[in-house]
Please model this.
Amino acid sequence: MLEGQGWRPKQGERSLEGNGQAKRREIISQLTKRYSGIGAKTAETLVKAFGADVYRVLDDEPERVREVLPEGRASRILEARREELKAGGE
Model:
């Protein structure tokens, strides 16, 4: 469930409201460039759901990614993120 559909950030998660639009675009751009198979629509879904905490959620709460994306797409993104971290990425 996404924002506007009853979804709200967990306590402590950073929202991208107001002046965060530039940051939102930056994160969407990073996601689409870093991970093959992630298009703008998928990246937008992740950023809308998790805001500035998207990378923390990918790393620490992968089950939440599976709540907002189809299983196959979520698995590909999570695996790509694990590989990136193993290779020394941030």
